[in-house]
Amino acid sequence: MELMWRTSHVSGGNAHYVEALYEQYLVDPNAVPDEWRNYFDKLPRPEGSPSRDIPLSPIRDQFYQLGQSRRSAQGVATSDSSESKKQVKVLQLINAYRFRGHQKADIDPLDLRKPVPIPDLDLSFHQLSKADMDTEFQTGSFFLGKDKAPLKEIVDALEQTYCRSIGCEFMHIVDTEEKRWLQQRFESVRSKPKFSDEVRKHVLERLTAAEGLESYLASKYPGTKRFGLEGGETFIPMMDEIIQRVGGYGSKEVVIGMAHRGRLNLLVNILGKSPSELIEEFDGKKVIEKGSGDVKYHQGFSSNVMTAGGEVHLALAFNPSHLEIVSPVVEGSVRARQDRRDDAEGDKVLPINIHGDAAFAGQGVVMETFQMSQTRGFKTGGTLHIVINNQVGFTTSHPQDTRSTEYCTDIAKMVQAPIFHVNGDDADAVLHATQVAVDYRQQFHKDVVIDLVCYRRRGHNEADEPSGTQPMMYQKIKAHKSSRELYAARLVEDGVLSADQAKDLIEKYREDLLAGNHVANALVKEPNKELFVDWSAYLGHEWTGDADTTMDMKRMQQLAARMCEIPDGIQVQRQVAKIYEDRRKMHAGGMALNWGFAETLAYATLLEQGHPIRLIGQDSGRGTFSHRHAVVHNQKDGTTYVPLEHIGDGQPRFTIHDSFLSEEAVLAFEYGYATTMPNALVIWEAQFGDFFNGAQMVVDQFISSGESKWGRLCGLTLLLPHGYEGQGPEHSSARLERFLQLCAEHNMQVCVPTTPAQIYHLLRRQVIRPIRKPLVVMSPKSLLRHKEATSTLEELAHGRFNMVLADVGKLDAEKVKRVVLCAGKVYYDLAAYRSENEREDTAIVRIEQLYPFPKEELYEVLKGYTNLEQLVWCQEEPLNQGAWYQSQHHMRVVADMLENGLGRELKFAGRPASAAPAAGYMSVHVEQQRQLVDDAFNA
Q1: What pLDDT, in 10s, does the model give residues 264-292?
Q2: How far apart are CA 837 and CA 821, in angstroms?
Q3: Domain count of the fold of the chain
Q4: Domain Transketolase-like pyrimidine-binding, which positions (predicted)?
């Protein structure tokens, strides 16, 4: 990088020329050529900026000094006794335009926006009048290129800057440096930079492509759903500019999330999907051989494009018809890519989330996604948000019915994101807003929003007739020229090209479409595969429930010792110190192993074997039930120490964070992360198992069906505390029945481990096998410290995960006449009852994996009981919940395989059917628990 600066055009004999150009740029950015303006726009900000990996050359320091001296010369006029009151009022007027000019801006291409009274922008409000228009006033911090100017000139400049095709909202930002940066970018060019003819021709070509694809599909497939982009075509040149510009910054990957509006257009004209492939999909071609598949406007795609800064990989996330839920999925995928590149600042990978206006305002997950944007566990260096604002919502809604705020984008103010409302019919304004948005994100690493105010020429889909509910709007739309027509006419009027040349672009694009040629003009035909996420090692494997999770005993004990090491100087809280002291005894063989030890050791061994680990939950550092304490808090100064980060030199990343109070966005984020980091163990832990209810959409639309719909593999693990301890309806059940209902085609695993050894091997199996399937774990609460729920070092070193655990009691198999099948914590209640009542005729068998159901393993256990007469399934959950209804047919099949065929004799022991998951009164809970255990042995 330093060599580039030493040998570039800004060094040596060119330095004085460049300095002069820069001084001219500071006075009037439009006075320098496009390429120099873009270059100067991107210069890192001066002192106070975050450290960046770009060495500063002497000439760059000179630029900063020039800029600072220029701003100093334009310093805000002070209001002392020698100044008139009117000078103060002029400065207040300037500030009013910065605050409220957006409300007067011409941002609606249909001119349907009702004007609102804005007294702040009237001269009289500030005790000024037309008589003052020729009087010169200090301009203060307003970027006018001179210190003083007539009031008329100041007002004209303010109107041009803040009340034309871009409505800027940034005065809600508290950081003065950010506000001044944004003021300079808009005020210096009056929000209308002068683009070169070549740039404007390129914009027209991209507009022609956007309109051309929609016209072609409309004529070839009339009435077929495609969720077209008509009315919002400037979205395509916007995306083209974003990708090219971030590529110029050195970014290597862009991940995009969007719902279906305009998706096909983006796929073909930006990502480079072959038009012929799209046509085949319209004609019914299958995209994936196995599974259900999905409609074409939900499909993802990836490709590489060439930019001025090199090759950039583009990834469009797969998306269901649940609108904004893809937003946090994109953030998770981006964070995984950044972690893979050690890109802590977010310079190399950019997230872009594209929204609809009604969804942006109405879907709560948008707020959750904004909330995670600057948190340690989830930040991605700023997201570029684009709202394709068709002003009518998803079907026929009036804005008054879709939100309570003035703009659909007002929610973005919660994180002080700047918002640029831009008229979708003014392509030059769209280009300028796009450039500023990209530069802001790269400069400050924060979220920014572009509100592309446009319209929808057709209905919600192409079979919908919108005039039935929106007659006035669609009268205007029918008479309204397209964005391409308007822009082409403007370029012809400006002498940039002729009308025939503009028409030739249409013909050329249609010829390429008909020929099946790629129409994304920067597409790399032979992409650099190093930019891709490599899933090849995990493809094509059939399901297997086994894996070699053993480990050399000596090595395992060394790792156990290391995960218990806490450096001198860290004062550990008393109860936590006891946990670590007990763990030291466990790895030395002096105590039986508990759950926290086994789970933590599983992480240590996986790290030692080269697998990154990411563990996220609302209380994951210590564990909701204080069993983990993977993060140790120094009682002296509040600093933290994570022993698992110090397992060995060169170990992979271990990430553990307590998340903010969200389930939906966080689980979606972790899904996105897991689909992009195949060799990692990625875990989301619910504080209580039923909290996943807040993220049910993620489970339904991604975790359970992503592979079937899109062929998308994912090894995400869910730890859901589950078990009936009398804590009431909301903290007992992780809704096991819902997960089992979603199980089919080996789409995921549902397990209920009951010993430390089982969780140890289960977590290791999840990563060591080359299979990537979501894993849902009904994890325990009371078993974390249950005196019987222990394991040995030998079971960890030499064992494996057993999908079925045979009875460990000292029973004579020939005397056993009843087998109680169960899963989870109830086993220990059953074992206690049997011991107390000396029931040697009953065996207790644990099914530790409920899906895929281990039929062969269960049969091998049951066939040893040759005199078996009764089979009972016992569960803590009510009859209509838990595993009974979704698993009994599997058990009956196994029972019928026995010599005496007991399938029909399978009985149920559990709580009666109930609307709520559990009783809210301890006395009721205790009686129900006593009864179901008694039923298991005696009913």
Answers
A1: 999 999 999 988 888 888 777 777 677 77
A2: 18
A3: 5
A4: 593-786
